Structures are given as C-alpha cells and as structure tokens.
Amino acid sequence: MEWLKSKTTLVAGGCLALIGLQGYGMISMRNTMEERMSSVERDLQAMHNQDSAKVAQLTSDLDVVTKRMGITSQELEDSHAIAEQLKKESDQATQRLRRELALKADAKAINQVREEAATKLNAVQQDTSTKLQGVSGEVQVVRTDLDTTKSDLAKSRSELGTLIAHNSTEVAELRRRGERNYVEFDINKAKNTQRVGDVLVQLKKTDVKRQKYDVVINTDDLSILKKDRTANEPVTFLVGSDHLRYEFVVNSVDKDRIRSYLSTPKDKVLAAETPAPVQRLQ
Predict the structure, then answer these.
(1) Is 127 or 189 the better-scoring residue by pLDDT?
(2) Would 240 be classed as within a structural domain?
C-alpha cells in the first residue's frame, strides 16, 4: 500500500510536472507569439509608415504631374486653336491665290482676245482702206468722166443755144423772148402727183446737201422716173407722137421741196416739124 501510495504520488507528481511543463511551454509559446506579433505589428507599422510616406510622395508627385498635365492640356488646346487658325488662314490664302490666278488667267485671256480683235480690226481696216482707196479711185474716175460728160453736154447745149434760167428773173427774160413756153412750179413731196403745164409730176426724194432730187413725170399714160438729178440740170423728155422736147429744170432743192420751171415748145406743130434753135442765156 505504501508502494502504491508512493507510486501514486510519483504519478501525481509527474502529472503535475507534466502539467507544469505544459503550462510553461504554453506561456513560453504565448510570449513568443506575442513577441512575434509585436514584431509583426512593428513591421506593419514601419511598412505603414513607409507606405504612407510613399503615398504622400506619390500624392505630391501626382499633384505635380496633374499640374503639369493641366499646363500641357492648356498648351495643347492653345496649339490646337492656333493650328485651326493657321489652317483657316491657309485656306483663305489659297482661295485668294486661286481667285488671283483665275483673274490673271481671265485678264490674260481677255488681253489675248483684245489683241486678236485689234489685229483682226487692223487687218479689216487696212483691207477696207485699200478697197476704199480703190473705190475712191474708181469714183474719182467716174466723177472725172461725169464732169467731162457734163462739160461736153453743156458745150453741146451751148452750141445748140439751150437757154437755162437760174431764177425767176431769168425765167421772165426767157419768157420775154417768146421762143418757148415756161411754166413755173413749187412742188412738195407727196403721195399724189401735181400738175405742171400739161404733165403730172410727183416729187419722190430730195438731198439738200448734194442738191439732188428724184421725180416721176407722167405724160402720155407713161411714168418716167428721173433719179439723182442735180439742181440747174435740164431734164429732157419727149412728149406725144411727135416727140416734142420738154425740159424740166429745178433751180432750188429744199427739204421735200423743189422749185423752178417746165419749158415746152411755143408752137407744138412747128416744133414737131422743125427743132427749135436754142442758145445759152448770157
């Protein structure tokens, strides 16, 4: 029994010792854990402090970058605006240049057309001048021939003694001589004919500047057109079956008006048998 008690005491003491060891181990483990946790906490705190510092630094850097980015954005906006303005000005300059080139091209074309027109006009003028010179030469020849013809006619009539009166006084002188009958007239341009002696006369046109006229003389149911006749030029025509010589003389050519006389044979029977001698009135 003593042995058993002794053994029980040993066992109990062992158990107590074991429990004590276990308790010591647990306390030691706990202390170790607490130290490790404290160390971890310190590390975490240090890391936190470092991270905070890093975060602060990053925040500061971010602020700087943000500010810089703000400046860059403004500069980019300004640059974009400047680029748009430059593009607009470039487009405007291009349009102005195109318009100027178009105007220059039009001006060049117009000048070319003007030069061509001037060249053609000069050619036409030279050709016209040449033709006019030729026509003038021909007209001068015709005038010379006409003057010669008139001179010859006047000479022939002078030789025959044709009496031409240039005014009422001379007509009165011719009438006084009694060699022919003289009927004075004053005719205006009209649609109807006017009687002069035993013929009908219609004035068609007058040219005051050139002292010329056109008339239609109606006799023996015939209409005789006398065109482009000159003042003081005897217009001779034959009347009746005996072909009596009548002379129509105009001394004054006014606008749409002619004045002078008609000369007819004194004795129509005798005139038909023998042409009346005539002489120029001096």
Answers:
(1) 189
(2) yes
